[in-house]
Write a structure and sequence with these properties.
heterodimer, A: 361 residues, mainly alpha, B: 503 residues, alpha/beta, Rossmann fold, six-stranded mixed sheet
Chain lengths: 361, 503
């Protein structure tokens, strides 16, 4: 048993190598970019690092980002295992976030129940939203890459409508929303000493749960089978279409959870409108949805691996605040790393040219 | 004696591990229609691809009109006056017929395509060879027969004197086929020489001057069509069969396990692939479903296991009509299925052996409780399959991708037989396997039959069909056109495979 676990650990480390190489290549390439702009890469990365980890507020922001990044990566990974590309984490998170906010705004409940109900509603909304793209791909051959991206815009527009015309009319003016603080009974518990909620712990637990789900449950097995071999799976009676839709439901629920977590976290709740307004402008929140995909890619679609790659991206994102004048440089770094991840064969070839698979006879 | 238009001598071509063409001599006279007859894998397409410069060859010479020629690629072949029409057409769908015909050899004026000149040339060609066609129709709108005609015109425009047609009628309706042969006659009257590949006996009898029969990479006979008989052709094509001995228990067929009645089914591309097909499989027998590939086997099996729905007719599995059942419901009626193409349909190559043996069974109480997998049980089962079916692999965590074909197939057959199915459907179970694995898999089928299971063996390999089957049903163009019993009427098999129904 221990030998088996040892072998699994070695395997996990081995599979992490291409990701690490891609990260390093990405950092190197973006250093060159910085040099071209007469910036000292060491200084930039140093200030990103210090900004993210040197202060409590920076650390709090790392943990807040960590939660969103992990969950949005999982929202991409689970459908991905069934062979369906969920690029709609952003839209699912926006709708999940806004439905959680609506629950808190309009449906007062007893303390613990209140945030739980909000989270649950967010998951359901995210799931239903994602399943539309799932069904379009499974039954109508419309690629989910396309439909999920397009539905991100629909989700943003719909959330904007809700915010401006439903929520605003009911109680407050839009500008007031910038200062709205959700009642403490409605938000998630604070993590001690930090200005963030326990959401990042929830996210890590969900990542562990997802890894377990994928490797150790019958449904997780069927999802993986569908992704790696839809035809053999189908010929053994696994319906690839329903499996894909189920995987999208799960992915959407994770996206919705990410949105709810963001909205219900201390320090973010009051920011929620601000962040949506940014989101509508194509900025901040939207970035999180897509960053989730980057996190997943760097983690090579491993649920547990996404925790580690999310830490990296969270530090990068939080530290960006500290080097505000160079924020675009940091974004460029993110983009370059994603480029290197998208070319896994490149890192593999750099690792060892002429790597061959053994044939057993 | 006239100088032959084409002479191929001692042509030999090996692919890794297989001799595809083994010392073939072929002579074609000017103006004749030569039929090349043979089964799947006989080497006929390989030989023609060599002639057309698509494959290199290891030994032999090619002469045209008495002169030795070098054909290194298809441009060489075209320059020498060879034209080939493949089964899959290469037309540009959104160009017109005329544009397709001139494609690659457009007449130009000042660097621009000269459309009037092009039209004149093409119209002349069409008139000269008498292949009538609307030059302004879009290629994509044409029926298959006309698409083929465009391909032929294209080859002729490039100066083809010898036209090679690879299974030209496989994609045609009977009427279109007749039309094609009329065109071929017209072409040869105009001096062209035609070589066409087929496995259809009647076709070759009616439309050629001479016939070359190939089997297992060799030419077994070349006959003048007027002296040939269908029996002779059928026998030459199938060859003398040396029966291998398997330990068969006495033949005692039991209850009917599978009854297919007047079944019609197909895929999007071939909606009528299975056309009025009826047969039965009983317990304790191997029924060999013989047929040249592409006669509806794939669609038939897919329909039986519920991957597609029949358009009419019935499938009765162990006394239950399964027409509307899903694949998983059908497999639960105790059906094992060894699918065609193990790497594509049988195994998930990136799954380990352990993961592959429980494919489709993850929810069964043997391997999971309340949705949670029982890894110990899975591994135990995988080990038992590996042991019982002689899978040679360093362990059950090896990915299927890293197994040899024989071991992959053993994993599949092991998985299917471990479920103790009443009915086993084995579709091309030994294709591409080495001799030892082939015999082993075949002996497993015989064992299954001896222990009272029903086996439907779908195979395009007659040796396998003849060795193993208690009964043979022959599928031709989606229909069962004959049934033979072990040792009875084997001479008929070749004819049936070639589409000549038993009288």
């Amino acid at each position: 048993m221990s030998r088996q676990m040892g072998a699994a650990l070695v395997g996990a480390l081995k599979s992490a190598i291409p990701s690490i190489v891609a990260l390093l290549l990405g950092l190197a390439a973006s250093s060159i970019l910085m040099l071209a702009f007469r910036l000292n890469p060491l200084e930039v990365f140093g200030s990103v690092f210090v900004g993210a980890l040197g202060t409590t507020s920076g650390q709090s922001l790392v943990l807040t980002y960590l939660a969103s990044y992990i969950l949005l990566a999982l929202a991409f990974i689970v459908p991905g295992k069934a062979g369906i590309w969920n690029v709609g984490g952003q839209g699912q998170a926006i709708l999940g976030g806004i439905s959680a906010a609506l629950v808190i705004e309009f449906v007062p409940l007893p303390p613990i129940l209140w945030p739980l109900a909000a989270v649950l509603v967010a998951c359901v909304v995210g799931a239903v939203w994602a399943s539309i793209s799932g069904m379009l791909e499974a039954y109508r051959n419309a690629s989910a890459i396309v439909t999920t991206i397009m539905m991100n815009f629909v989700a943003q527009a719909f959330a904007s409508f809700l915010l401006l015309y439903v929520v605003a009319i009911k109680s407050r003016t839009v500008s007031e929303y910038n200062y709205v603080v959700f009642p403490p009974a409605a938000t998630l518990p604070t993590f001690p000493f930090y200005n963030t909620s326990i959401m990042f712990i929830v996210a890590i637990l969900v990542a562990i749960g997802t890894a377990f789900f994928l490797s150790r449950t019958a449904l997780g097995y069927n999802i993986r089978a569908t992704g790696l071999g839809a035809r053999p799976a189908e010929s053994k009676g696994i319906n690839p279409r329903t499996t894909k839709v189920i995987a999208m439901l799960l992915g959407g629920a994770l996206g919705g959870l990410a949105g709810a977590g963001d909205v219900l976290s201390v320090g973010r709740g009051c920011l929620f409108v601000a962040c949506y307004q940014e989101g509508f402008a194509g900025g901040w929140f939207g970035g999180e949805g897509f960053a989730g995909i980057a996190v997943a890619l760097v983690a090579a679609n491993s649920a547990l691996g996404s925790v580690f790659s999310a830490v990296f991206f969270a530090i990068l994102a939080s530290g960006t605040a500290a080097v505000f004048q160079n924020v675009y440089v940091v974004w460029a770094t993110q983009g370059i790393i994603i480029l290197f991840m998208a070319a896994p064969y490149l890192s593999r070839r750099i690792l060892n040219a002429g790597w061959r698979k053994k044939q057993w006879t | 004696m006239t100088v032959p238009m084409l002479r191929m001598a001692g042509i030999r071509k090996t692919f890794p591990g297989v001799v595809a063409v083994d010392g073939v001599d072929l002579t074609v006279d000017p103006g004749e229609v030569m039929g090349i007859l043979g089964e799947n894998g006989a080497g006929k397409s390989t030989l023609m691809n060599i002639l057309y410069g698509l494959y290199s060859f290891d030994a032999g010479t090619i002469e045209m009109q008495g002169k030795k020629v070098q054909i290194r690629n298809s441009s060489d072949a075209i320059a020498l006056g060879l034209g080939m029409v493949h089964q899959a057409f290469t037309l540009v769908p959104n160009l017109t017929v005329m544009e397709n015909i001139i494609l690659g050899s457009e007449p130009t004026k000042n660097g621009v395509i000269d459309k009037t000149e092009a039209r004149r040339q093409v119209e002349d060609l069409v008139k000269q060879v008498g292949l009538d066609i609307d030059l302004d129709a879009l290629a994509e709108d044409l029926p298959t027969g006309f698409k083929q005609r465009v391909e032929i015109l294209k080859a002729l425009r490039r100066g083809a004197k010898i036209l090679i047609l690879d299974e030209p009628t496989a994609v045609l309706t009977p009427l279109e086929a007749e039309e094609l042969f009329r065109s071929i006659r017209r072409l040869t009257e105009g001096g062209s020489t035609v070589i066409f590949i087929t496995h259809k006996l009647k076709e070759v009898m009616a439309n050629t001057q001479r016939i070359t029969i190939m089997r297992k990479g060799k030419v077994v006979a070349t006959l003048d069509t007027k002296d040939a008989t269908i029996d002779e052709l059928a026998n030459a094509m199938v060859g003398r069969h040396v029966e291998r001995k398997f330990a068969f228990a006495p033949y005692k067929p039991g209850e009917v396990l599978l009854k297919v009645e007047k079944l019609r089914a197909g895929s999007k591309h071939k909606p009528e692939a299975v056309n009025d097909c009826s047969f039965t499989v009983r317990a304790g027998e191997i029924v060999g479903l013989a047929g040249v590939e592409g006669n509806g086997q794939t669609e038939l099996v897919e329909c039986i296991v519920g991957l597609t729905k029949p358009s009419s007719g019935t499938i009765i599995l162990r006394e239950r009509v399964t027409n509307e059942m899903s694949t998983s419901e059908i497999l639960k009626l105790s059906v094992g299925h060894v699918p065609e193409d193990r790497a594509l349909n049988g195994l998930i190559l990136d799954f380990s052996i352990a993961e592959n043996v429980v494919l489709g069974a993850a929810e069964s109480p043997d391997f999971s409780r309340q949705g949670f997998m029982l890894p110990k049980k899975v591994r135990e089962f995988a080990r038992s399959v590996v042991r019982a079916f002689n899978v040679s692999a360093p362990g059950i965590d090896v990915k299927a991708r890293n197994l040899s074909g024989g071991n992959q197939q053993k994993v599949i057959v092991g998985r299917e037989l471990s479920g103790q199915p009443h009915l086993l459907i084995a579709h091309q179970p030994t294709r591409g396997l080495d001799v030892a694995s082939t015999e082993y898999i075949q002996s497993l089928l015989v064992e299954a039959r001896n222990s009272g299971r029903g086996v439907l063996l779908v195979s395009a390999d007659f040796d396998e069909i003849l060795d193993l089957s208690d009964r043979i049903v022959v599928l031709y163009e989606g229909k069962i056109i004959g049934e033979l019993t072990r040792g009875v009427g084997i001479g008929e098999l070749g004819k049936l495979l070639g589409g000549v129904a038993a009288s």
